[in-house]
Amino acid sequence: MTIEDLIQHMDPALWVGNLRARNKEEVLQKLTEVLVSAGKVKNGELILEMLQNREALGSTAVGSGVAFPHGRSVAISELTILVARAPKGVDFDSIDGKPTYLFFLLLAPPQDSGNIYLQALGVITGLVQNDQVREKLLAAKDFDSMVAALREAQK
Amino acid sequence: MTAPKDAQLLVALQDLEQMIKEAEDASKRAALEKMGFPVTGLEELRKAHEKLEARIPRALVSRYRRLTQRLGRAVVPVVDGVCTGCFTNIPSSFTSAVNQDKVVYCETCGRILFWP
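^ inputs. structure came back:
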């Protein structure tokens, strides 16, 4: 999977430029509400429960200000990526103990035979390991800047 | 469309079982850890699974188990009017059955249907 493939699964309606939340629970709740409002999910409760269970398995905040809440559910019909930026930072139980500013939420249906979901997760987590790319993503103030930062990363 | 409570619980159960299965699979677990995701809460998930299963009527869980054993995945989404388990068209009348608060089964493969 390429970065361009990844961008194809992104949507301006699934971009949150100014996420305000006090903790992990609120982040997941608010991002789920965005998925429902954007019409990507009908049953937000199921997605929220799945994401909470995933966090119980181990935090998806990998450090350096970035988190990747993710999982599979029958309640989603296609690979969906939501990107959110929290300028003030949130305690998301990050492995480095620092606040999280950028969230890539990935959801996929269970019948993902090509394992596109894990491939997408691999591409995004790989990208943010690059300090320069991560800085640009953290600084992106709108959907287009975020996509531009991703496109620049593949050059 | 609001999904009936029991169908929702079965979706949650299947989602959770898939998560546990993936975390127990050595290669998938290694892939997650390589991406920087620690897998430390498996026991917590098993407890959550136990609690969730206890909320579902026993007969329904038994049917779910039989379907899982026979077909791999008991609950499948209906996408564009098609059962994604056996790719049969689902009659539109089934949609209204969902509204009547029933768990709906595919007439062809027997899987439990869910409208995502």
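Chain B touches chain A at residues 1, 3, 8, 11-12, 14-16, 18-19, 23, 28, 31-32, 35-42, 44-45, 48, 73, 75-77, 79, 84, 114-116 (CB under 8 Å). The radius of gyration of chain B is 16 Å.
thumbs up if we can close this ticket
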